[in-house]
Design a protein that fits this description.
- It comes from Capra hircus.
- By secondary structure, this protein is mainly alpha-helical.
- The protein contains 33 helices and seven strands.
- The chain has a domain of 148 residues.
- A hairpin with a 5-residue loop joins strand 4 and strand 5.
- Helix 14 runs parallel beside helix 18, helix 18 packs parallel to helix 21 and helix 22 runs parallel beside helix 25.
- The longest helix has 22 residues.
- 45% of the residues are buried.
Length: 787
């Protein structure tokens, strides 16, 4: 039968279903078989031939027929899994049912009355068909999930058969050990099966159905406690699924082994179409959804208030019941870590390759899923995090993240990407090794819209952060605290900043310490505290190599004197806020001496009008996101969180932290106009007295007269002579006693768990356009907005 006939017959069946007012018996095979037995329809056909309005109409007007359709389609998948799908006809039925369920499920989920349907047992559907069998009948959802799992390891359908002859010796699907059929070499599996286009396509269709099953989460509004467990994921990742381990490994290895270049040969993808990419995308999406697990609620605190997750032994408590999370947290072999890290770094760097060797490789689009996966690996597997930081390989992750942050900074549809990039860097910056690695020289290869500089990866990070703060989209303002916290965390380890980066840091201090900015929101002064902490760390711990920064501080010394003499009387405060009425840009680029951008780079572009984006829940403030630890003499960290907090939010200069009001934080207009908040003299005095200026003032007191003397003696206007003097200068014994280094480490909390859930599902919603699985259904987890 031709494909046109086949589509026509399928369409006729759909029309019959929507027009029948009477229930059709489940035993009426002649009717139900029309949907899957004699048709060869692609998933795109199914979406076109089963319109949304008709699914909803059946749901409202003849619910029993929709129920029977779902039940019969699941039954066919179960039969296929039982029999092992040996004939072409059986495989076609499985694919047709799979496509049909992918189409219908979202409409089941969007209606709260239907939500329990898949978790109920179907009368008479007991395993043996007898009446007394109903007690041990499985809920429909469980039967469906187990069938999908079996079908994903079905010889000659989704995996290579190991048998030589096909005569009567088909492998028994029940005794088959799926660990021998893992899809790709990598973690825990050495054999790389021959690529097979058909198997890849069949896996992809089944994974799409699996992802659709999991997507019930999209139809529940964001819950503040985030504790709601997705029952589909919970069952699929439990010991009930005998394929959990090989499937987890197959998904992880398929993603990490993928090489879009095409066997390492540039431009190869132009000759061979790459059918692996859709499977890899689907695998990455299924993987991150199965790993949606709130680690804040499952880590077990030990005596000293830290969690046992960082212990380097295998005597960890029995991990979470979600086996995917459990397996992920237990990976420990160096070669496995190397394989995962190399794979993710290769894929994240792919869009960067595009920019300096255009078209040399296929450009992949799933970098957001990869960033979520990398986040989960670091969050759930501390040994992996330490491995990443053990060598300079971490820079192969850092550079792509900085590239994405810089590229997306003006685009409001990519605010989520900006957040996850910053979250990953915040997590990494809590470890000393990250700061140390940043000292590696950076050779500019990737054209980026940033000033040209010669220096290290630390310079790159500071220059990109400066660019985000001064020319990013206004929705990024809640991230300023995070960006500066990262710089504070790495600052004690930065051996020598370039002049470009030093000037950028001072430009930020200048911008953040203007009186109108300091007085126009309750939290703005925290940014100044963070920057002063950066300067103090570098002066106290890395003075020797940082003559560029010392010189920049001397040149801009007036900024520090202005801060020390900040006016606190009401008329001055009022005057500063009046000045704000003429609306300049929040942070001008004036005085930032940007210099030329790199050759071949494009300015960061705003979102195209009409671009779809999904809303995100607010992220917790930096005080909730991090916990403060003090670095002891021997380099170990001591948590400061367990000490009783003083009732006042303003406790000490070093721990000056943003507080609850962080969302109101940067109402750059004077808040008093809207009657919300207005600065008082007492308020300004309360934090002005804590500004940690002693170290810098002492430095200026000692060095400025010496520098001025050189200039007068030699009639100098030449920087190099002054820099040479500063390089050989020393402040030993002249500075105050070094303060202890404070690190603000990321800590898991339910607020970020909920943010990750909404972000992840938003990405999946927007990326699945062919077919548009969830488009135009009533999702509740986020709103879909047009730019």
């Amino acid at each position: 039968m031709g494909s046109a006939d086949s589509k026509l017959n399928f369409r006729k069946a759909v029309i019959q279903l929507t027009t029948k007012t009477q229930p059709v018996e489940a035993t009426d095979d002649a009717f139900w078989d029309q949907f899957w037995a004699d048709t060869a329809t692609s998933v795109q056909d199914v979406f076109a031939l089963v319109p949304a309005a008709e699914i909803r109409a059946v749901r409202e007007e003849s619910p029993s027929n929709l129920a029977t359709l779902c039940y019969k389609a699941v039954e066919k998948l179960v039969q296929g899994a039982e029999s092992g799908c040996h004939s072409e006809k059986e495989r076609q039925i499985v694919l047709n049912c799979s496509r049909l369920l992918t189409r219908v499920l979202p409409y089941i989920f969007e209606d709260p009355d239907w939500r329990g349907f898949f978790w109920s047992t179907v009368p008479g559907a007991g395993r043996g068909g007898g009446e007394d069998d109903d007690e041990n009948a499985r809920p429909l959802a469980e039967s469906l999930l187990l069938a999908i799992a079996d079908l994903l390891f079905c010889p000659d359908f989704t995996v290579q058969s190991h048998r030589r002859s096909t005569v009567d010796s088909a492998e028994d699907i029940h005794s088959l050990d799926s660990c021998e059929y893992i899809w790709e070499a990598g973690v825990g599996f050495a054999h790389s099966p021959q690529p097979n286009y058909i198997h890849d396509m069949n896996r992809m269709e089944l994974l799409k159905l699996l992802l659709t099953c999991f997507s019930e989460a999209m139809y529940l509004p964001p819950a503040p406690d985030s504790s709601s467990v997705n029952p589909w994921v919970q069952f699929f990742c439990s010991t009930e699924n005998r394929h959990a381990l090989p499937l987890f490994t197959s998904l992880l290895n398929t993603v990490c082994a993928y090489d879009p270049v095409g066997y390492g040969i540039p431009y190869n993808h132009l000759l061979f179409s790459d059918y692996r990419e859709p499977l890899v995308e689907e695998a990455a999406q299924v993987l991150i959804v199965t790993l949606d697990h709130d680690s804040a609620t499952s880590a077990s605190p030990t005596v000293d208030g830290t969690t046992t997750g960082t212990a380097m032994d295998d005597a960890d408590p029995p991990g979470p019941e979600n086996l995917f999370v459990n397996y992920l947290s237990r990976i420990h072999r160096e070669e496995d870590f190397q394989f995962i890290l190399k794979g993710i770094a290769r894929l994240l760097s792919n869009p960067l390759l595009q920019t300096y060797l255009p078209n040399s490789t296929k450009k992949i689009q799933f970098h957001q899923e990869l960033l979520v996966l990398f986040w989960k690996l670091c969050d759930f597997n501390k040994k992996f995090l330490f491995f990443v930081l053990k060598s300079s390989d971490v820079l192969d992750i850092l550079v792509p993240i900085l590239y994405f942050l810089n590229d997306a900074r003006a685009d409001q549809s990519r605010v989520g990407l900006m957040h996850i990039g910053v979250f990953i860097l915040l997590l990494l910056s809590g470890e000393r090794n990250f700061g140390v690695r940043l000292n590696k020289p950076y050779s500019m290869r990737v054209p980026m819209d940033i000033p040209v500089f010669t220096g290290t990866h630390a310079d790159l990070l500071i220059v990109v952060f400066h660019k985000i703060i001064t020319s990013g989209h206004q929705r990024l303002q809640p991230l300023f605290d995070c960006l500066l916290t990262i710089v504070v965390n790495v600052s004690p380890y930065l051996k020598s900043l370039s002049m470009v980066a030093a000037n950028k840091l001072l430009h930020l201090l200048e911008a953040f310490s203007t009186t109108w900015f300091l007085f126009s929101a309750a939290q703005n002064h925290h940014l100044v505290f963070f920057l002063l902490e950066v300067f103090n760390n570098i002066i106290q711990y890395q003075f020797d190599g940082n003559s560029n920064l010392v010189y920049a501080i001397i040149r801009k010394r007036s900024v520090f004197h202005q801060l020390a003499n900040l006016p606190t009387d009401p008329p001055a405060i009022h005057k500063a806020l009046q000045r704000r009425r003429r609306p300049p840009e929040p942070l001008s680029r004036a005085g930032s001496q940007d210099g030329a951008s790199m050759e071949g780079s494009h300015p960061a572009a705003p979102a195209e009008p009409g671009t779809l984006k999904t809303s995100l829940v607010a992220t917790p403030g930096i005080d909730k996101l991090t916990e403060k630890s003090q670095v002891s003499e021997d380099g170990t960290l001591r948590s400061l969180e367990s000490e009783p907090q003083q009732s006042s939010a303003e406790d000490s200069p070093a721990t000056e932290e943003p507080s609850q009001a962080w969302r109101e934080q940067r109402r750059l207009s004077s808040a008093s106009a809207s009657g919300q908040w207005s600065p008082t003299s007492e308020w300004v005095l309360s934090w002005k007295s804590k500004l940690p200026l002693q170290t810098i003032m002492r430095l200026l007191q000692v060095l400025v007269p010496q520098v001025e003397k050189i200039c007068i003696d030699k009639g100098l206007t030449d920087e190099s002579e002054i820099l040479r003097f500063l390089q050989h200068g020393t402040l030993v014994g002249l500075l105050p006693v070094p303060h202890p280094i404070l690190i603000r480490k990321y800590q898991a909390n339910s607020g970020t768990a909920m943010w990750f859930r909404t972000y992840m599902w938003g990405v999946i919603y927007l990326r699945n356009v062919d077919p548009p699985v969830w488009y135009d259904t009533d999702v509740k987890l986020f709103e879909i907005q047009r730019v």
